[in-house]
Amino acid sequence: MAKKRILLVDDEPNVLKLLGKRLEFNNYEVATAQNGKAGIAKTLEWKPDLIVLDLLMPDMDGIQVCKQLKANQATSGIPVVMLTAAGIENAEKIGLTAGAVAVINKPFLLDLIDKIGDIFRKIEAGESLDS
């Protein structure tokens, strides 16, 4: 069985490195992008199975990226998990409204790994990601 492909989009290099290594350790294939525009381009080029997307990024934030991905037929079916700094008011509602299947507060490492596993299990079982 081929490894699931996960694209990490975050403007913090340390987050990309730490999370990338942890996901690779959990047998995922990982690619990264350091801003929203690069994330959209990498999604179109690499066709990941799931995208982990930071909410707060300069130039193009995670909400804008998620909305563009969901509006494009080629990328609309890719699940997006949004990361947010704790304390951002209504972050979960905003992320889910934009099309994310989950919003996870930083620090997040173990919660994110578990959530990614849950999402892929639901996809493989043919279950809805809305639940």
Provide a descriptive summary of the structure in words.
By secondary structure, the protein is an alpha/beta fold. The chain has one domain: Response regulator (Rossmann fold, 3-Layer(aba) Sandwich), CATH 3.40.50. The chain is built from five helices and five strands; from the N terminus they run βαβαβαβαβα. It has a five-stranded parallel sheet, sandwiched between helices. Helix 4 links the parallel strand 4 and strand 5. Helix 2 packs parallel to helix 3. The longest helix is centred in the last third of the chain and has 17 residues. It is globular and about 35 Å long. The two termini are 26 Å apart. The mean pLDDT is 90.
Concise structural overview:
The protein is an alpha/beta fold. Helix content is 45%, strand content 20%.
**Shape, please?**
globular
CATH topology: Rossmann fold
Strand % is 15-25%
Mind telling me which CATH architecture this is? 3-Layer(aba) Sandwich
Level of helix content? 40-55%
Broad CATH class: Alpha Beta
Largest sheet: 5 strands, parallel
- Return residue spans where pLDDT drops below 50 for at least 5 consecutive residues: none
Sequence-ordered SSE layout with sheet pairings:
Blueprint: E1 5-9, H1 13-25, E2 29-33, H2 36-46, E3 50-54, H3 62-71, E4 80-85, H4 91-98, E5 102-106, H5 109-125
Helix pairs in contact: 2-3
Keywords:
131 residues, alpha/beta, Rossmann fold, five-stranded parallel sheet, 5 helices, 45% helix
